[in-house]
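Dear colleague,

As promised, here are the two records you asked about, laid out in our usual form so they can be pasted straight into your sheet.

NAME FIELD: protein one
SEQUENCE, THEN STRUCTURE:
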Amino acid sequence: MTSIVLAGGEGKRLGKNKLFEVVGGRPLVQRVIDRLDPISDRILVVTGEGQPQPAIEARHARLSFASDIYPRKGVLGGIFTGLSLTEAGHSLVVAADMPFLNPGLLRWLMDAAAGCDVVMPRLQGLIHPLHAVYSRSCLPAFRRELEEGRLQIRAILPSVRVKYVDEAQIDRLDPDHLSFRNINTLADLEEARRIAGTLVDSE
């Protein structure tokens, strides 16, 4: 299965490119790649228009880069780009600012993808579209929304087969929900560094 990493730029109120901020001794985006490397045969990093290609490496997976097919169309455009450029039936999609991705939970999501178009966590009623699995069969619905200027992932969900993963299952694999943490602010960054300092680094 391909892993698609959506590489955003500056975080809200962060004032700089968050992908290169160091968390637990590694740049943020490299931490994400390191978590995906053992569980994917290919990692595709999708960047925004004009965004520099991050200096990262994978030890096992084939790593490649792509720019948005639909520039300035947000998350929906990034996921469409990634799905368009992979031959895999299903792809795991994550954001590049999630330093504590849980490989066990990600594997479970990937294994749960058979027979559906989307596998998406739902915590306290909130869905997590950037920590989910998507099928290439979503592409027509994504294209329709993009071309009509509607950029909310939620809008396509009624037209595809979605398997929601609720809190009880997530708690078994990631009881502290660290996998869903992302970094948009300086406070987020400081908290991520604090958490990384408390973890036994067996990654």
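NAME FIELD: protein two
SEQUENCE, THEN STRUCTURE:
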Amino acid sequence: MNAQVDLHVVEGFLYQEAGYLDRPDLESWLALYTDDGTYWMPASEDQPDPFNHISHFYDDRVLMEIRKRNFVHPRAASKDSAVRCSHLIGNIRHAGSSEQGDLIITSNFQVVMFYREEQRVFAGTYEHHLVPSGDSFMIRHKKVNLINPEAAHKSIIIYL
């Protein structure tokens, strides 16, 4: 993809993704991913890859589907309390293209999550690898870099 990226269209897509996670609507969120899509949350700063190092998450499409099914299952522990989230995304920038030709978009995020009478705040940067699809995009890869990846985190009940 060339340097003529319409960031308003990209922003709209990222806001749509955030809206699905805020609800949470994991069925619609998962539909934003390509069949070979991945979601990665490194467990250390500047982690070079998810294969030779431990990560908080490194899910392919199959694992994302399993987590989604577990999250919405009527007997899931996650159903005992509502999950409420608010995603804020800013500083959205075009950062070039991947080796596969995907559009690389970086942004900053803050997520406030309320679950089981406790509010938690997460912040960091996103890196999305987007594949053009009609007048929108699909996500081939999403990397979530927390500002404190080495900190002890309670169970992260939903994708950030």
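A couple of things worth noting about protein two: The two ends are 27 Å apart (CA to CA). Residues 7-22 form the longest helix (16 residues).

Best,
R.
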